[in-house]
Amino acid sequence: MKKHSIALACLLLALAAQSKAEETKSIAAQTIDTLNGLSGGPHAGMRANHAKGVMATGSFKPSAEAASISKAAHFKESVDVTVRFSTGTGVPMIPDANPNSRPYGMAVRFNLPKGGFTDFVGISYDGFPVSTPEDFLGLLNAVATIGKSTEKPAPIEKFLGTHPAALAFVQAPKPAPASFGTQSYFGVNAFEFTNAQGVKRFGRYRIVPVAGNEFLSEEEAAKRGNDFLMEELPARLEQGEVSFKVLLQLADKSDVVNDASIVWPKERAIVELGTLTLSKPVANGKQEEKALAFNPLILPDGISPSSDPILLARPLAYAVSVGQRSK
Ligand code: HEM
């Protein structure tokens, strides 16, 4: 009996110590732990999210209108770009057609004329399921209990029942594209743009394929190989360049600029910032992917972050993943 109560006391102490350690762990570190748990990771050398990718290089040519939006250097002259397309989740071998791999990702590094760079890091869906990093962790933790929890209602039902934007995100159709080059990508977080005259406005990026959006039915997608999107891009580039328009959706005065879960109305003005043209796959892409770390908050003069807490949380979460995958 005595032995049992000592064992119980030890267990309670261990649990208390563990919950104290969890409390002191940053939201970013807890999020990476949950992402790792969901993907059966950490997987050596791989990203904790958007683990599977393919890369290409090309250029960005600004439109005549771009400089009226921002004085950023790449809105005045053409620059080289490096792009990484990815499937969602931290599962390195996830089949490209698996619905869990959506939304897909597109990350663009604009190499600035006088050195340095700035990044776009977007997804193939206009909107984010939650408004704060705490809720993102809550959502992922609820997803992690699917099939394991016997609670009624299940944690995921509770979460979606109290977070309508997350429910809308989960339920929205997200068809697989025929190609990474026939899919639109959305920046989701707002930034503030300042032009040479000091005029400021908020906007959200979207990058749309010049070839148009082309999607597959679930039946067609399921018939494709596990890596069909990863393999299609280099094959498409052998046939010719792949171009996208880089656009900016401008906020109205009434629009919420610090909540990525609130989609702005379709009627908002959209300006064309320029054309992004991919010309070649990256030959040693797998090595290059490891070396690259995108960060949506490395910004040139003329672009500033909004106060969106999801945007502000991203660099730390990405740094934890980079630290893990660099070991
Ligand atoms: C709090 C919210 C978020 C967290 C915790 C998070 C977490 C992560 C992590 C850990 C990585 C891997 C980073 C690396 O190892 O280099 C990543 C990559 C990525 N994330 Fe997020 N993310 C968040 C929000 C977003 C949003 C709002 C978007 C898009 C609008 C996004 C799009 C992407 C993409 C496309 C990648 C892959 C970048 C690449 O190709 O290297 N994420 N995210």
Structural write-up:
This protein is of the alpha+beta class. The chain has one domain (26-325): Catalase HpII,  Chain A, domain 1 (Beta Barrel). The protein has 10 helices and 10 strands. The protein has helices spanning 2-24, 27-39, 66-69, 133-144, 155-162, 164-171, 218-223, 228-239, 285-291, 309-325, and strands at residues 53-62, 79-86, 105-111, 117-123, 185-186, 191-194, 200-209, 242-250, 270-281, 303-305. Strands 1, 2, 3, 4, 5, 6, 7, 8, 9 and 10 form a 10-stranded antiparallel beta sheet that branches. Strand 6 (191-194) and strand 7 (200-209) form a beta hairpin. The longest helix is centred in the first third of the chain and has 23 residues, at 2-24. The termini are far apart. The mean pLDDT is 94. The structure holds protoporphyrin IX containing FE. The site of protoporphyrin IX containing FE has 31 residues, from helix 2, strand 2, strand 3, strand 4 and helix 4.
Quickly count the domains. 1
General shape: globular
CATH class division? Mainly Beta
Q: Helicity, in percent?
A: 25-40%
Our measurement of the CA-to-CA distance between the termini, rounded to an integer number of angstroms, reads 47 Å
- CATH homologous superfamily descriptor: Catalase core domain
Tell me which ligands are bound.
protoporphyrin IX containing FE
Query: What low-confidence regions span 5 or more consecutive residues with pLDDT below 50?
Result: none
What is the rounded Rg? 21 Å
Tally of alpha and pi helices: 10
Mean pLDDT: 94
